[in-house]
Structure formats: C-alpha cells, structure tokens
Amino acid sequence: MAESRHNQHRLAPVVEYREATEQDAGAIAALHADSWRRHYRGAYLDSFLEGDVIADRLEVWASRLAAPRLDQYTVIADGGGGDLFGFVHTMFDHDPKWGALLDNLHVRSDLKGNEIGTHLLSQAALGLLQHRASGPIYLWVLDQNKAAQSFYDARGGARVESALRGPFPGGGRAMGHRYFWPDASVLVVQDG
After folding, report:
1. Which of 28, 55, 94, 142 is found 20 to 30 A from 34 (Cα to Cα)?
2. pTM of the predicted model as reported, rounded to 2 decimal places
3. CB count, 10 Å around CB of 177?
4. Where are the extended beta strands (E) located within the chain?
C-alpha cells in the first residue's frame, strides 16, 4: 500500500514532443527492440528476439526517417540529453477504409503510467490532422499485449476485428486486433 501511495506522488518527467529526425534512428531502434522483446514473446520467434533485433530495427528506422518522408509522421518523447522516452509512427492514407495507420507506439517500460503514451497518441492525431483535413486512424495490437489493449480501450478505440497477423520479421504469427477511431481529433489532448 505504501508503494502505491508513493507512486501516486512521483514527479512526472519533463518531456518535449518533437518530430523525429534521422539522428533519432538509433535511439528509436533500441527502444523498439526492447519493447518487442518485452511484449512480443510467443508471437515473434525467440531466435529472432534473442538475436540482433536492434540492427533489424535500425535498418527500418534509418529508412523511415530519411528524406523525403512523404505520407508518414514520427514523433518522439524526448527527455533531453539523448534520453528517448517513447515514440509514435503514423502512416497517412494507409487504407482507403480505415485511414491512417498508427504503425508504432512505444514507451520506455519504466516510464509507463506518466501519460507519455497518451501524449504520443495525441501527437499522432495532431500530425494527421495537420496533413489531412480530418480522418480516421487505426492500429493493430497483438492478442498477448493486454496492457496495450487496455490502453487503447481507455482512449475510446473500438475493436473492430481480429485476425491472424504475420509473418513477422524473423518469422512467427499471432492473433491481432484492429482498433479504430473514425475521427482522429478525439485523441487530441487539450493541455491546460
């Protein structure tokens, strides 16, 4: 009980939300690999997760963050001094029916519960609305990632379908759930 009271009074970290640059690729790749290793066991093959996932993710992020970056938007939660707290990546016009794809949202495991994920989700919605007048947004979350499902449920996401996903990098398949927001503006957090 004392531990939970202590956690309620901890200070939230100071975070700057900004568009990612090519120089952020290494930090994003490292956080992405760590998140996969923590949350995707059983979906991704252990041999892949225990291998050089960082190199795999670095190749992806170096490509995604290279200019020109059309029809996509990546925001990081920057703690200063090269300390990456989280990131979100959105692909505009990904699907004619479902709209923009929120392809990645990851927060450092020791910082969850500090509203960083909520603010990253808001930044993704703002980016979409700046590039498109309005629009729907969706994502896929794997079945075993119950914490992410709870997070998206709490933010008004509608689970609209479930399907077998994959094969994933390195192999493996798992059930996933599509979460959908018909209007991304509902995800925008009003600070104040």
Report:
1. 94
2. 0.90
3. 20
4. 16-19, 72-78, 84-95, 99-107, 137-142, 158-165, 174-181
